[in-house]
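S1.2 Input.
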Amino acid sequence: MFLEQLQKRNPEFIKEAVKLYSQGKIHANSYVIDLDRVEKNASAIAKEAQKYGLHVFAMTKQIGRNPEIALRIAKAGIESFVAVDPWEAQILAEAGLKLGNIGHLVQIPEHMMKEIIQYRPEVVTVFSYEKAVSVNKAAAEIGIVQPVILKVVAEGDKIYEGQQGGIEEADWKNVTAKIIALKNVKIVGLTSFPCFLFQEESKKIEKMPNMDTVMRAKKLLEKEFDLQLFHINSPSASTSSSMKAIAEAGGTYCEPGHALTGTTPLHSVSEEVEIPAMLYITEVSHLFQSKAYTFFGGYYRRGHLQKVAVFSKEGEFKGIFSAEENDAQSIDYYGAFTPDSQIISGDICVYAFRTQIFTTRSQVVLLEGMETGNVHIVGIYDSQGRSLTKV
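S1.3 Output.
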């Protein structure tokens, strides 16, 4: 999906990753990330957000909840992070990072609530009165008032399978009234997902019905309860080029994720401010019945895998080949592509497809020094942000 843009805009990154792989310093089934470029991408996003008065929470799930990358992102100007689930919150908090939003997309389990609230997140997203009660109880035990934002939904909103939840329109007033009565939570905003999304037809990031739902709820609840809902969290497809649209639609907070590595769908069709900074590297395991099979473990079923760049064991470029999408119903032990006669076992393979590293079995290798020419591995991590080795 991103291989062409990666070759065009960050070719030295590919070259250095292949070189390190040929030296045995990177293993098969590894994502490699260009830290220098991620920092620059984060800085560009932070500056554009500031231009439009937006607050930014960085998302790290797609890069394997990696604390080292998060620290670089914070250094570049995005100091707070959204944790997609409580386990990500634990990893980020243990690294000393500021937590912006917890509870969206995944709510907090009952027996983890007090621990998570003790991290003092800026906001907690709640899908229901019952979950607000749980937040309230933990906040009371700690002795604080925890700001919360409500996830609101309405007929016609885009909702992904496996992500259903939120306060339905018919219940907005009733649920809000009950939450307001709780002593240790304070409603400060609203959210939904996705509020913005890349559209294949227009090749642009466009506002979704969800955003209109959020703004309709804001108008209703502020009038009905005299609330000040200043935190309008407007996630998905947050890039430098979408900041203006987010602000114009009424958003006040955005949550860039793939934009940090230049790997949103928009980046596959357009040269955006953010430059691609991530690749997947592995090798040919074997050939069988006219196909080459590569070691996998990092495939993501929405990855839009299309092509693979193949190099010899010594790093000599052999060509670009059409890669096959894996069956989402099968485990990705191997990936497949149609080779020519020069492809052999052990050849190095570079992919650049959409991913969510935290759902994979891959290692994550961090490189720095691309800007100075002194390229080296900073560290190697698992897909959950745990360090495997320091180099």
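S1.4 Remarks. The first strand starts at residue 30 and ends at 34.
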